[in-house]
Amino acid sequence: MAQTVDWLAVAPPVVLAVAALVVLLLDLWWPGRAAVSTAVSAGAAAVALAAVGYLWTDPRATFCLSADGAPSCSYVVNELTVVLQGVVLIGTFVVLLLSHSDTAGAMPVGETRFLLLASATGALVLAAGRDLATIVVALEVVSLPAFALVGLWRAGRRDAEAALTFFLVSVVSIAVMIYGISLIYGVTGAIHLDRIAAALAEPEGRTAAATAGVVLTLGGLLFKIGAVPFHFWVPDTYDGAPVVVAAYLSVVSKAAGIAGLVIVVGIGFPSYADVWAPLLAVLAVVTMTLGNVAALRQRSAIRLLAWSSVAHAGYMLVPLGASVAADGGLIGAQLSTAVAYLALYAVINLAAFGVVSIVARSAEPTGAIEDYRGLAWAKPAAAVALGFGLVALAGLPPGVAGLWARVVIVDAAVAGGATWLAVAVVINTAIGLVYYLRWTVLLFTPARTKEPRTYRVPMTSGVAVGIALAAGLAFSVLPQLVLGLAGESAGLFG
Amino acid sequence: MIDRLILHLLMLVPLAGCLTLFFLPRGAATRLAPLVGLVASGGALAAAVVAAVRFDIGSSGTVQFVTEAEWAPALNLYWRLGVDGLSLPFVLLTALLVFCCLLYTVRVRPAGGRLRVFIGLILLLEVGMIGTFLALDLVLFFVFFEIVLIPMWFVIAWWGDPDDEKGRTSAATTFIIYTVLGSGIMLIGFLIVGVRAGTFDMIELAAAGGDGMSARDQLIAASAIVGGLAVKVPVWPLHTWLPDAHAKAPTVGSVLLAGVLLKMGSYGLVRVAVPVVPDGVRVIAPILGGLAVVGIVYGALACLGQRDVKRLVAYSSVGHMGFVVLGVATLTPAGLNGSVFAGLAHGLIIGLLFFLAGAVKDRHGTSEFAGLGGGLYARLPRLGTLLTFGAVAALGLPGLAGFWGELLTLAGAFDPAAALGRPYFLGLLAVALIGVLLTAVYLLTMVRRICQGADVIGPRLSVLGDVTGIEAASWAPLVALIVLLGLWPALVLELVDPVMSGMGS
Predict the structure, then answer these.
(1) Is residue A363 very low, low, confident or very high in pLDDT (cuts 50, 70, 90)?
(2) CA angle at residue B5 from B4 to B11, to 5 degrees?
(3) DSSP state letters, A279-317
(4) Using the beta-carbon criterion (under 8 Å), do B143 and A397 form an inter-chain contact?
(5) B184 reaches A (C-beta below 8 A)
(6) Checking CA distances to B452, which of A259, A378, A488, B244 falls within 20 to 30 Å?
(7) Smallest Cα–Cα separation from A119: which of A89, A145, A94?
């Protein structure tokens, strides 16, 4: 039976994949043209985003298997896919812009772009993948270029070490996941999520092997989002990698992880919600608490953001942990809440990371948050963007986008009957406030020296931060933009 | 048309002032900052007065000037604003106090410079405070409640006690962490209500009176809402953030913190907790009442031990807010009226007292009894007289505003709601009366130690002089209202009572 491929459905990842090859080849023939490379890669991300926008009105599926009854498709474009791909593409676009001024100097132009685009291609496929084989392969496509990105740039010993930690944790977690998938396949005889869901929902689908399979399958995805117990690569890797790669990991790569998690548990394992939801609830609390408490002690900007991103991985798990209804069924709206949280977190985190990537290139950066003292005088716009990002990450006005994010997860916890999870979020908010506020205040505290630091803000970085800030402000005023879009997918689960 | 706009103007005018200061070139903004602050807060005050004039007093039990627009359907969030007899006095109090503060700031600059930022933050605070009193949607209320946090952190940490940088920063941080925890817990309560009742509309929820929520849900929601607001009020033993925050804040910060921010807590109790989850509140009311009287006595005893005017005034809030909470706990119209009245009176009196304590400190470089040494009447007769006036107003002298709130509250405790145990509340009443006596003792002690006696340090103060014109101008409205409300309490009670008689049981 010949497979027909719906090329429009797969257009977004195909565009990125082609662009990845083009920038690599361009670099081979005309080396060192950073501007061309940036234009092609960012342009490809924009075209893919347009394609995603078009697909919003025209959901479709491809790579379908219709042997018996309703077809099971491996690649599905629907409301959920579109929102997740949108987050991935906006994140990729901003990161590509941020990386422009780095590629103009210290780092290989073509390879960097190739790796970023290749990894993002994996993330796009992951968002659309609806069978476990596609999801594992896509997950690896996200990860493999990322190892290279972490190790590639300033080829110091520390970077190699960071890449190695990252690699080892990844390999272990993926191995755990594949073992889980093999158990699921053994029990259900299927790799398509809809078929797995149907098989697991049968009374005889309830076996110890399937339970173990469900739990172990989560491994690789928890690694991607940086949740406990697969979190300890995060601070070292972020610290060892160039800032824009850390930004990529904390936004695009994490988005891929959340996408996979929501898709696998929501579409594949809804009848096992009573197994994975309590597990994710506990992991949520441990992850957010560990992330926040560890961040309290950080004096390095990147390590602080790294632990903060661990804490936020915990927050993202809250709705998943509270998604079992009183009757044991799955509450689909909770999973779309996790997606909404991801989208809000992505834009505010990009604003913060964008400014950090600018300051990291200033004269004699030490990497400490002390570098940021007096930024409001040297670069007021950058200070406002970073201040907004940090206060929003803390979840307080004037960073209202972050406040909405906090409200939706507390709401999800309460609606799911897990008030204790809501209390954990509240306590963690208070802990997080301490370190976010400490940093924010430094921005607006006069510098100790008379001579202000000088910053070179490349136009591309300025535009990138501007986009993230504008999106953050737009979501602050019109939360419905993101909550509504994410909410559309609520009916797709279970 | 004006009715549709007026409530928005109340917030838009200060917001516009804040944005103006932010976007003006730095040099121009620094010069114009006091003027912008004065105009913006004056505009808000004018809008509040217009709203009060156009407000239909005959039907003050119903919400007027209502605006309702869908904001985020995914969150079930609506932009719902309105004002009734309960919220109108608080809106007026806020607009007045902010205006007085910014008028005062025209001449008396806070130590720490950066006047432009300071005034911008005060205006942002005003947006949050007024929004809290106007919001008719639980989530919207929460958003406004949180808006004040970051500006107030900066006000305390940057313009606070110039001699104690570490102390003022830690006071600010303690304040914000307590409040974030409190408001977060409150939010959980709101969301429980929202999930069970399917709406965040305060009016609809109050009309339903907890129908459709099981007793257990109501109890959990009420505990969360009351517990969260209790941090803000603050109710003993959650008050520990208060003394430092008030004592370290700059004068204007203390005035707004004690005058308005604490009221956001007590307003929330009356506006949300009592009508929305009545059955749950009824269960915890005795506990709340017990903590309230402990607070009254504790506040008074703590004040007896203070050796510093500013700290004494700060601690006195714990006791006075105890009366406000006791009034709520009785769940009777009398007690609730008393609670609201006591809250408003406290806002005026404590505002005046913090202004005076600040003026004393500005003139002497210290606000400790030992450094002041007495003889204020001889040295600065007008300031001394005003301080005495503030003190007797605070101790509840009949004829001044402080009296009626306490009286009504105690009347409520004398005859509490039927579901509550009367003997228990009579016991609370007795303890509260001891607190009233102790309050008189510490306030009169303060007057005796500072104002009376021989002036030993007089000559050194010759340059500073007595109450200045700008001080007189910014304090006069407070003094006048303290007298007016003392002589004519019906002015407020007429507004508040129709709302309260619908509540309680």
Answers:
(1) low
(2) 130
(3) HHHHHHHHHHHHHHHHHHT--BHHHHHHHHHHHHHHHHH
(4) yes
(5) yes
(6) B244
(7) A145
pLDDT recorded at residue A450: 65
Answer yes or no: are the C-beta atoms of A472 and A309 closer than 8 Å.
no
Q: Which residue does chain B place closest to A412, by CA atoms?
A: B191
Q: Which of B286, B322, B475 is nearest to B406 (CA)?
A: B322
**Across A6-15, average pLDDT:** 92
- A434 vs B72, B173, B185: nearest CB: B173
Structure tokens given for B388: 């005495």
Q: Which of A400, A238, A127, A278 is nearest to B150 (CA)?
A: A400
Q: Which residue has the tokens 């009016």?
A: B203
- A·B CB contacts under 8 A: 92
Evaluate whether ipTM surpasses 0.95: no
Distance to chain A for B73, nearest Cα, Å: 7
Q: Which residues of A touch B194 (CB under 8 A)?
A: 411
Residue of A nearest to B121 (CA): A398
Sequence-ordered list of residues with C-beta below 8 angstroms from that of A169, at least 6 positions apart, any chain: A223, A230, A232, A233
Work out the burial of residue B465: count CB atoms within 10 Å of its CB; fewer than 13 is exposed, 13-18 middle, 19 or more buried. exposed
Phi-psi map region of A89: left, alpha, beta (phi>0 left; psi -120 to 50 alpha): alpha
Mean pLDDT across chain A: 89
By Cβ distance, the residue of B73, B157, B191 closest to A414 is B191
Q: Residue B100 and residue B260: Cα distance in Å, rounded?
A: 13
How far does the CA of residue B401 sit from the closest CA of chain A (Å)? 35
Give the model's pLDDT for residue A489.
Answer: 82
Match 């772009």 to its residue by tokens.
A113
pLDDT at B460: 56
Q: How far is A77 from chain B (nearest CA, A)?
A: 22
Q: What is the DSSP letter of B212?
A: T
Residue of B nearest to A388 (CA): B150
Contacts of B74 in chain A (CB under 8 A): 340, 479-480, 483-484, 486-487
Q: What is the predicted pLDDT for the residue at A452? A: 66
| B295 contacts B319 by C-beta, under 8 angstroms | yes
Q: Count Cβ atoms below 10 Å from residue A7 Cβ, excluding itself.
A: 9
Give the tens place of pLDDT for each residue, B164-214: 888 888 999 999 999 999 999 999 999 999 988 888 999 889 888 888 888
Distances (CA, A) of A389 to A144, A440, A442, A476: 29, 9, 14, 12
Whether the Cβ atoms of residue B6 and residue B65 lie closer than 8 Å to each other: yes
What angle, rounded to 10 degrees, do the helices at B115-134 and B149-159 form? 150
pLDDT digits (tens, 9 = 90+) for A364-395: 667 888 888 888 888 889 999 999 999 999 99
* Partner-chain residue, chosen from A410, A433, A434, that has the shortest CB–CB distance to B188: A410
* Highest averaged pLDDT of the listed ranges B341-350, B380-389, B409-418: B341-350
**Contact call for A480 and B142, based on CB within 8 A:** no
B415-470 pLDDT per residue, tens: 888 888 889 999 999 999 999 999 999 999 888 888 887 777 665 554 567 888 88
What pLDDT, in 10s, does the model give residues B262-282?
999 999 999 999 999 999 999
* B101 pLDDT higher than 70: yes
Q: Give which of A359, A349, A430 is closest to A388, Cα–Cα.
A: A349
Interface of A with B in 331-390 (CB under 8 A): 340
Contact between chains at A433 and B180 (C-beta distance less than 8 A): yes
Q: What is the pTM of this model?
A: 0.93
Which residues, other chains included, contact A182 with Cβ-Cβ below 8 Å and sequence gap of 6+? A213
Q: Which of B350, B303, B324 is nearest to B229 (CA)?
A: B324
Yes or no: say if A446 and A297 are a contact pair by the CB < 8 Å rule. no
